[in-house]
Write a structure and sequence with these properties.
The radius of gyration is 31 Å and the shape is globular. It is an alpha/beta fold and 999 residues long. Helix 5 crosses helix 6 (195-205). The strands form twelve sheets. A seven-stranded parallel sheet has the order 29-28-27-30-31-33-38, sandwiched between helices. A five-stranded mixed sheet has the order 11-12-13-14-15, sandwiched between helices. Strands 16, 17, 19, 20 and 21 form a five-stranded antiparallel sheet that branches. The longest helix is centred in the C-terminal third of the chain and has 19 residues, at 719-737.
Length: 999
């Protein structure tokens, strides 16, 4: 693809390649800017062949980004900003995305470790000379060009791997349907994550045409679309069927200036096709059909004459270098006129689904067709091949349902309803055991004759299958231009409501929509519609800013959102705090009662475990930062098989998550090590860890060692919200390990000791009894405090235990790859972005993550566990001032502020930037400590937080050769360089030297 684009650059460097909102890029400009992105990716260490996310919306910068990714020899993964954050997280994870190119103004997705920013097209790049400005070598056409996710309507979105050859075949392979060329202007109106954008972008840029980018509002408004097509001389438009139908019904002459228009994605209405052909006699009208898995288009039907009104529009014949076969259930070829499943293949066929060999084998099959084996994709669509060879679409196999003994085709109901002259669009979904038909009027604003339509349905449907009819003004449409069926019921419920809502509820609904990318209903559950802990923080931060509420109410609003997570319930909580002078304190927790084990271990069973030479190890939390390093170290230092419970839907999904975690931090496993890794679905917060009793019993009977590293780490959530994941999971681990007395090694935190400091204790040894839980002031620390108490009681019954309390776990010693989701990293980023730093003595007690993993595995396999505690701290720490000194040396301009003044600036910064990485940690600086007149953050300052003994650790590591490196300039510079090269913190630009300095 880059080669074909380069040919256009050479042929017409000054011709326009793309236009948007008055800005234009020529082919030469697009070439130079995409070269810049490619070079920056290579400079950041992104390897050719990697999957690189492109995060943002449709724009000129997006075209620069996707071309740049391809020129770097990588595959792009569209991460459209219009998608809900929960879906973006799935796409990053399943698409194996470790690097992301972010477009101006786009929110960074969570997970990747490398970010490259695309400069606005108006920016001057003359001073941005990349270190290694070079083109990647040519790569085979069978390599991956992009990863496109399916809609996920039938479950988890699936990442489809598309090759360069598939795209080139889409553009150039059909001699009967020539692509656009120089002089053509191609409409580009669909989101990056839509198949429709694929055919728009590459049919334009690989042929010398000019892309005309339009905003979403212009695309769904026929009058606005007509203005765009006319004013900008658009000649080619690839529309989804929904948009084609909408224009055909309301303003068919809007398409008259086009020489070519196509529709695809859904069944084409024959009467509306005839309407367009009558209104636009000089426009070629085409019906495309094809799944994502066959690079957008598999078959094509050019309408030479208006189709009969009582007939569907065929999907035609195989497109270009494609094949299409109608097969029976036994795999044999169906006879002409016989219905079967449609299989497609050819040069556009995808490699498969990224990271899911099982699903790939299920959907991509080799079939003997007319005596010749052929690799094909099973579309799941029903089709018929007519006697003249033309294919007709009959609906989805999975849309055939059985209702009270009757087989009903939901697609057929839709088609029949669309055929009624009063109906515009129809979408039929199953709700329980009854179909529901959502309808719009043929003429906008006209009432629908629902009684007549019900009688119409009863003429050809059994009474049990006559759908419930719901009238709507318009259908919700997703970024792909197709009807968003998941939102139909919500939109229908509010379609007739015009009553004003209270201002607080309206404001909060707007905040939810902004964060979740979907308009919520009052009874929508925040967590059921895609919310999670970090998005909860953003919801609260935005709410505080929009309604001008004091930041001190943040923690109480988080508690309210957890207790009553509906939109209406949260709005009520917001109303309450707006009328309150002070935040309500959290309900007190009886920590003595919480730490009661409630489990009596049975007599020790045989054979006992062999932790010194383990064969079977259970490691929790392998998809996290520390867990990934622990997994690698266990596989390096032992010959054990490592069992990994992972929050996932299947074992394959669990393995993908673990591989993604390893890749995120650049970790490679020893050769053949994956044969010793067993991934399986589990849930830390569920009873029995979400495992079946048989699986639990099998593990209990074979384990030699348990490393319990998993936890829900959240500094905003109260204890009750973290109890299941952090406390009950530890109790379940004790039940699992107890019968055979399998040693349990538990990763805790030094935060469990914060209460000692405000109680006046200046030094805490590893063997000191835990105390002062009522002073901890943070749910996460409280949950770890209770979990340690459970282990102490289990140890009293004979269970070997070891507890590790690390200080600040930071990047590895060699590369400095950090987990940037931590509070300390967000502090550094905010200081760099604002240029403001607090004047405080905050300890920088850094323990590199690889050192932590090596120390834990060494102790676990070389020391007999027995109710021991190890403080994983740095014997030579630093202070925040030392970090600031290195930041200044790197070119950051910083100004020191007194702590309280800095906190005020921090609150204002987060109010202006609610998605800032610091937002989830603001409460630490605002909330007051229990029984102490200081903030939670100040509890950790030097002079307040106690000094920690580390005798147990030093004795255990004596002679091991393991040493924690000092927090000196060398280590700090390594971490800062990681922040700069990964794009987490923009590299400071040093001012150009003055002439006198040069002399």
């Amino acid at each position: 693809m880059p080669d074909l684009f380069q040919a256009q650059v050479s042929a017409r460097p000054h011709a326009p390649a793309a236009w948007h909102r008055g800005e234009e890029l020529t082919y030469a400009q697009l070439d130079a800017r995409s070269d810049h992105v490619a070079a920056r990716l290579l400079d950041h260490g992104v390897e050719p062949g990697s999957a690189v996310g492109v995060c943002g919306g449709r724009s000129l910068e997006a075209l620069v980004a996707v071309l740049g990714v391809l020129k770097a020899g990588c595959a792009y993964v569209p991460l459209d900003e219009e998608l809900p954050p929960a879906r973006l997280r799935v796409m990053v994870e399943d698409g194996d995305v470790h690097a992301v190119v972010t477009l101006p103004g786009a929110r960074r997705p969570r997970g990747p470790r490398t970010f490259v920013e695309v400069d606005p097209v108006s920016a001057d790049l003359s001073g941005h000379v990349p270190v290694q400005a070079r083109r990647a070598v040519s790569r085979p056409a069978t390599n991956c060009a992009y990863v496109m996710f399916t809609s996920g309507s039938s479950g988890r979105p699936k990442p489809v791997v598309i090759t360069h050859r598939g795209v080139v075949r889409l553009v150039l392979s059909d001699p009967g349907l020539p692509p656009p060329g120089p002089g053509d202007r191609v409409l580009h109106g669909y989101s990056l994550s839509s198949d429709a954008s694929t055919i728009e972008i590459w049919n334009g840029l690989l042929t010398g045409a000019c892309l005309v980018l339009v905003d979403r509002a212009d695309l769904v408004s026929p009058p606005a679309l007509e203005d765009v097509l006319r004013d900008h001389g658009v000649t080619v438009a690839y529309l989804t069927t929904s948009v084609f139908h909408h224009v055909a019904r309301t303003r068919p002459r809007a398409l008259s200036g086009l020489r070519f228009v196509s529709a695809g994605g859904e069944a084409m209405d024959s009467s509306l096709a005839a309407t367009v052909m009558a209104a636009c006699p000089d426009t070629t009208v085409v019906n495309f059909y094809g799944p994502t898995e066959n690079t957008v288009v598999s078959t094509v039907h050019v309408l030479r004459a208006a189709p009969a009104q009582d007939m569907g529009v065929p999907i035609g014949r195989p497109f270009g270098a494609s094949t299409a076969h109608v097969l029976r259930a036994d795999g044999s070829v169906a006879a002409p006129g016989e219905e079967g499943e449609l299989y497609v293949g050819g040069d556009g066929l995808a490699v498969g689904y990224a990271g899911d060999a099982e699903l790939t084998a299920e959907r991509f099959v080799t079939v003997d067709v007319h005596g010749r084996p052929e690799r094909l994709y099973r579309t799941g669509d029903r089709a018929v091949r007519a006697h003249d060879g033309v294919l007709e679409y009959r609906g989805r196999l999975d849309r055939q349902v059985k209702l009270r003994g009757h087989r009903i085709e939901l697609d057929e109901i839709e088609a029949r309803l669309r055929a009624h002259p009063a109906v515009g669009e129809a979408a039929v979904e199953l709700d329980g055991d009854r179909p529901v038909a959502y309808l719009t009027a043929a003429e906008p604003g006209d009432p629908l004759p629902l009684e007549a339509l019900r009688a119409y349905c009863a003429q050809w449907l059994p009474s049990q299958a006559v759908p419930l009819l719901v009238a709507m003004r318009q259908f919700p449409v997703g970024g792909s231009g197709k009807v968003d069926r998941k939102r139909l019921s919500v939109n229908a419920a509010t379609a007739g409501t015009a009553a004003p809502v209270e201002s607080v509820l309206d404001a909060i609904a707007h905040v939810w929509e902004l964060v979740l990318r979907e308009r919520p209903a009052p009874d929508d559950d925040f967590f059921a519609v895609g919310g999670d802990s970090l998005l909860a923080s953003e919801i609260v931060t935005r709410t505080l800013a929009v309604l001008n509420i004091d930041a001190a109410f943040g923690s109480s609003l988080i508690r309210s959102l957890l207790d009553t997570p509906t939109l209406a319930g949260f709005a009520e909580a917001v109303r309450a705090v707006r009328g309150s002078a002070a935040a309500a304190p959290a309900a007190p927790v009886d920590f003595a009662r919480e730490r009661e084990l409630g489990v009596t271990l049975p007599p020790a069973q045989r054979p006992g475990p062999r932790p010194e030479n383990p064969s079977e190890v259970l490691l929790t939390g392998a998809t996290g930062f520390v867990g990934a390093f622990l997994l690698r170290r266990l596989l390096q230092a032992t010959s054990a098989r490592v069992h990994l419970p992972v929050r996932a839907t299947t074992s394959a999904h669990a393995e993908r998550r673990v591989r993604a975690a390893l890749g995120r931090y650049g970790l490679r496993l020893p050769d053949g090590a994956w044969r010793r890794v067993v991934c399986f679905p589990a849930d830390l917060a569920a009873p029995g860890l979400g495992m079946s009793p048989d699986h639990t019993a099998k593990l209990a009977g074979c384990l030699d060692l348990v490393v319990h590293n998993a936890a829900q780490v959240n500094f905003l959530y109260p204890y009750q919200a973290l109890r299941a994941a952090n406390v009950e999971s530890t109790r379940e681990i004790i039940r699992l390990a107890g019968p055979r007395r399998v040693p349990v090694h538990f990763l805790s935190t030094i935060a469990v000791l914060a209460g000692f400091g405000t109680a006046g204790v200046r030094h805490v040894d590893e063997d000191a009894e835990l105390d002062h839980a009522d002073r901890l002031s943070m749910g996460y620390a409280e949950s770890k405090w209770v979990a340690e108490g459970l282990l102490r009681q289990a140890a009293a019954q004979g269970l070997p235990t070891a507890v590790y309390r690390p200080y600040e776990i930071t990047g590895d010693r060699r590369h400095g790859a950090c987990n940037t989701d931590t509070a300390i990293c967000s502090l550094f980023k905010t200081i760099a972005e604002t240029g403001l730093a607090p004047d405080i003595d905050l300890p920088m007690d850094f323990v590199p993550v690889d050192y932590v993993a090596e120390a834990v595995v060494h102790v676990a396999t070389r020391q007999r566990a027995g109710d021991r505690v190890y403080h994983l701290t740095n014997p030579r720490p630093a202070l925040l001032g030392d970090v600031l000194e290195r930041m200044r040396a790197a070119g950051c301009a910083l100004r020191m502020l007194p702590y309280q003044q800095w906190v005020g600036e921090l609150v204002r910064h987060v109010a202006r930037h609610p998605t800032s990485p610091t937002a989830p940690f603001v409460s630490l600086c605002v909330d007051r400590g229990h029984k102490a007149d200081i903030s939670v953050k100040e509890m950790y300052l030097d002079g307040t937080f106690p000094r920690l003994g580390r005798r147990n650790l030093e004795q255990a590591l004596d002679g091991s050769g393991l040493h924690c490196p000092p927090v000196d300039a060398d280590l700090l510079d390594r971490y800062l360089e990681y922040f700069f090269t990964s794009g987490y913190i923009p590299r400071p630009r040093r001012p150009e030297p003055e002439l006198e300095e040069l002399v």
